[in-house]
Structures are given as structure tokens and as C-alpha cells.
């Protein structure tokens, strides 16, 4: 089944007016006040041009938007912040969820229920007030829903607890038929399996409930070394991290920092290699554990310390304002000395790369273990995630993509067969069969046929309905 969405006509004003009469939120056509604000995404190099935008205030609004899309044979794209959007959504119905931002914490049951538009920063602010933590991402401006549907690699607690998707208790979703479903392992086991890891292929999530953990502090931060010590730091980190406990989550990043006021003065305009640390054990054990890393070279900056969990965004210190960039990632099945040498060649001091960052996250631990209620996450057993990021305006798009491609193509001899969907290029639909592997993809396609036979939810790394 193929689609030519660009051939769909514009939404007529009278059709939009009929839709607006049924929703409490906003219905916006191109040219309307607020349309440009609602179509904006985090990546300034990516532009959405939907036929109509619905900004729902309730589940009923979402159902109306989905029913409208079905009646006009239009695809649906769901947007919270737009950190990862596939395609321009031309001729589509975009559902912008940011007004659906309720957060309800059950401290006794160690769980939280969030609306579809909630950001990780909002969850962290509330859960830390009661001494609990979630499996949040590294950037606090990312939406909870999209991150979790893609798996969710928490850089703070993931190695001891697994993927964020492993700890979802329930999801409220609107499927392509306009029905609201409360999806659990008991109510609809196949859909529950597919939603957790299958990204946005199956429904519009309106709310989800997931586990919290009794963690109120971490020993965490970053060790920033001069970039000319990349080889020493990388080899030391690679030898060190496998012997650490699952309560230690770590990554390494080679960074060429821009000369921008937003970048801290010690790092501004510098070529650096950074080791990120998040340890949920005692500070004394953490200090003793990372002593070999601190001894590798004099640090330009050392921010590793005992911190409240509320401060976890400072560990990776990622940008929180929209900017122009391109990123793409792969998984590595191993990282032997030859791979280490190659990575140093590709991004080290003698390379000519203009990547802003090449990041290698060490996985393993609970990330490799199947949860009690299995899900569609495809990357268990792959020990590393490698991400390349280039930054610059859209006029430099070809060079931005080439910079990332040079890194990932160079590491292909060690690439794993499956992909982590949250680290795929936001503007290029990837082969979903290659992402999930043949057996998992076949099951996803069968479930897709049941819940979205016309492939309404296709503006993503698309799982096609089984034929």
C-alpha cells in the first residue's frame, strides 16, 4: 500500500469550521493566527506544513480530529515538541497535544499518570517533590509520550531498570476508528505490546501511566577533558565501564562546542571529550568508582557531584531552545580495539569532522532483559548506542548529513542489525523492517492491520499494515 499525500486537496474553510464546532480546542488552517506557532518544532531545519492543525483540550477533541482525518482520508501526525518528526505532514491533520498536560502522582503506588502533552521537565519537577524518579530522557524539553513509545533510554536509571516502555502500566489511546481505548496487558495485550516500542504507528496516545522509583539523588555530572586526549579517555572509559554495577549509567561524547553565549565559558568554542556519569549509589562509592577516569588527564571542567534528582538535566546539559541541526544514530553490537581506533580516526583530534557531537552510550544491564510484560522494543542485547549530531542552517543540509553519514558509515563493520527508533533521522523515514527485525516486524504489521488498516498513522518510521 502506497500513498501520495501531496495530491490531497487543501482542507476547505467550511470543513474546518464544521470540525471547529465539535471541539473545545483550536482548529487552525494555513494563514490563521496561531498556525505558525503550533506547527513549529524543536529542530529549526525541519518544517511542518499540515493541511490543518487541531490543538485538543480533551480526549473528545482528539476523537473528533481522528474522525475528521478518516473522513477526508488524511494521515495524522501527533506533535508535542517536535524533537523527532518524519516528513512535512503536507496534507495531514496535525494533533498538537501540549494543552493535555495533566500530571497525577500516586506516591503510595509509585506511579504517575500524564497527559499526552507533558514534558519530562514537568514530570521531574513534580516527582522529585515526593522523592520519586522516572526513567526520563537526557533532554528535559522532550515529550514524555513520544520518548516512551520509542522505548526510552534513560541516562540516569535505565541500566538498572530497563527501557521506559518496560514500565508503562496503561495507555489511553484513540485508534484510527475514533474509539477511545484504555490499553493494558489484560485489556488488549497485542496493542499494549505494540504501542510500547512501536512509536506512533498505532494510535494517538492521550494519557499514559508508568512506574516511578524511590530515587531522590544521584552522584552525577560530566568530566570534560581536552579533545586532544580523546584516545586516552575513550580507551580508559571503554576498559572501565563494563566492570561497573548496573546503578552506574555512563556515556562518552566527543564535542566541538560552538562559540555561543549559551555555552558555559570553560567550554565555549572548545574541542572536548566528555564522560557523563549518573550513579544511584552512595557518593563515596561513586567517587571511588570514577577515580580512574579522573586520573586519565587534567579536566577542563568536572561537574560530577552529589545532586538532587531535580538537577539531572545538568548531566548532559543539552540545549533546551530550538536550534537547527541534523542527527542520526545506530546501534553497535561490539566495540573492540579496532572499533575504538576507527572512532578516534573519525572524530578525534586528527579528523576533519565538523560534527558538533559524537556520543557513545554504554547499555547492557536491565536494557538487555525482557520485562515481565514483553514489548516491541527491538534493541535488547546491543551494548552501545552511537549518535552523530551536526548543527547548522538548512542551507548547509547536504554537509550536515554528510558529516553524520561519515561517522556512521565508518562504524558500519560493528553495527547491530536493529535500530533504536528514537535515534533515527527525524526527516528520513527508515525501513521499519530493518529497525525491528523480521519476526518482530511481522507481528507489528499484523497488529497494525487490526487497529489501523488504512495506515492513517504513517508519518513516522512506518509499519505497514499486513496484506
TrEMBL record:
Database matches in InterPro entries: BBE, FAD-bd_PCMH, FAD-bd_PCMH-like_sf, FAD-bd_PCMH_sub1, FAD-bd_PCMH_sub2, FAD-linked_Oxidoreductase, Oxid_FAD_bind_N
For this protein, the record's SUPFAM superfamilies field holds: FAD-binding/transporter-associated domain-like
Question: S-adenosyl-L-methionine: present as a keyword of the record?
Answer: no
Which Gene3D superfamilies does the protein's record reference?
3.30.465.10, 3.40.462.20, Uridine Diphospho-n-acetylenolpyruvylglucosamine Reductase, domain 2
Q: Which segments constitute the FAD-binding PCMH-type domain? A: 46-215
**GO MF terms, alphabetically ordered:** FAD binding; oxidoreductase activity
Instruction: Give UniProt keywords alphabetically.
Output: FAD, Flavoprotein, Oxidoreductase
Domain of life of the source: Bacteria
Q: Which cofactor does it need?
A: FAD
- Establish whether keyword Manganese is in the entry: no
Family statement: Belongs to the oxygen-dependent FAD-linked oxidoreductase family.
- The name of this protein is FAD/FMN-containing dehydrogenase
Amino acid at each position: 500500500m502506497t500513498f501520495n499525500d501531496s495530491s490531497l486537496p487543501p482542507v476547505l474553510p467550511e470543513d474546518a469550521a464544521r470540525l471547529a464546532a465539535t471541539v473545545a480546542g483550536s482548529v487552525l488552517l494555513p494563514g490563521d493566527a496561531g498556525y505558525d506557532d503550533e506547527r513549529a518544532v524543536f529542530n529549526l531545519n525541519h518544517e511542518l506544513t499540515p493541511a490543518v492543525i487541531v490543538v485538543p483540550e480533551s480526549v473528545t477533541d482528539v476523537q473528533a480530529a481522528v474522525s475528521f482525518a478518516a473522513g477526508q482520508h488524511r494521515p495524522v501526525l501527533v506533535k508535542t515538541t517536535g524533537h523527532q518528526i518524519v516528513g512535512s505532514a503536507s496534507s495531514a491533520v496535525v494533533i498538537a497535544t501540549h494543552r493535555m498536560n495533566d500530571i497525577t502522582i500516586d506516591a503510595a503506588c509509585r506511579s504517575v499518570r500524564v497527559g499526552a502533552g507533558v514534558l519530562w521537565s514537568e514530570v521531574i519537577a513534580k516527582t522529585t517533590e515526593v522523592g520519586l524518579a522516572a526513567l526520563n530522557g537526557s533532554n528535559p524539553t522532550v515529550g514524555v509520550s513520544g520518548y516512551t513509545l520509542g522505548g526510552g533510554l534513560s541516562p540516569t536509571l535505565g541500566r538498572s531498570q530497563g527501557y521506559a516502555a518496560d514500565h508503562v502500566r496503561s495507555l489511553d489511546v484513540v485508534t484510527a476508528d475514533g474509539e477511545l481505548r484504555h490499553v493494558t496487558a489484560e485489556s488488549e495485550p497485542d496493542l499494549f505490546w505494540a504501542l510500547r516500542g512501536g512509536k506512533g504507528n498505532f494510535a494517538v496516545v492521550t494519557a499514559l501511566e508508568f512506574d516511578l522509583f524511590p530515587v531522590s539523588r544521584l552522584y552525577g555530572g560530566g568530566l570534560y577533558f581536552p579533545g586532544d586526549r580523546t584516545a586516552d579517555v575513550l580507551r580508559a572509559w571503554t576498559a572501565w565501564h563494563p566492570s561497573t554495577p548496573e546503578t552506574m549509567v555512563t556515556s562518552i561524547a566527543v564535542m566541538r562546542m560552538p562559540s555561543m553565549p549559551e555555552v558555559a565559558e570553560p567550554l565555549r568554542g572548545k574541542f572536548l571529550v566528555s564522560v557523563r556519569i549518573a550513579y544511584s549509589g552512595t557518593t563515596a562509592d561513586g567517587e571511588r568508582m570514577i577515580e580512574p577516569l579522573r586520573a586519565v588527564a587534567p579536566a577542563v571542567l568536572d561537574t560530577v557531584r552529589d545532586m538532587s534528582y531535580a538537577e539531572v538535566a545538568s548531566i548532559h546539559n543539552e540545549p533546551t531552545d530550538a536550534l537547527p541541526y541534523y542527527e542520526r544514530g545506530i546501534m553497535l553490537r561490539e566495540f573492540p580495539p579496532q572499533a575504538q581506533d576507527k572512532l578516534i580516526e573519525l572524530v578525534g583530534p586528527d579528523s576533519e569532522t565538523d560534527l558538533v557531537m559524537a556520543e557513545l552510550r554504554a547499555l547492557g544491564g536491565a536494557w538487555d532483559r525482557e520485562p515481565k510484560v514483553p514489548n516491541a522494543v527491538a534493541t535488547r542485547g546491543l551494548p552501545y548506542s552511537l549518535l552523530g549530531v551536526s548543527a547548522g542552517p538548512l542551507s548547509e543540509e547536504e554537509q550536515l548529513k554528510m558529516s553524520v553519514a561519515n561517522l556512521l558509515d565508518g562504524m558500519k563493520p560493528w553495527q547491530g542489525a536493529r535500530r533504536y527508533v528514537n535515534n533515527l533521522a527525524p526527516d528520513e523515514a527508515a525501513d521499519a523492517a530493518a529497525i525491528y527485525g523480521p519476526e518482530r516486524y511481522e507481528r507489528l504489521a499484523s497488529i497494525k492491520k487490526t487497529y489501523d488498516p488504512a495506515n492513517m498513522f504513517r508519518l513516522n518510521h512506518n509499519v505497514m499494515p499486513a496484506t
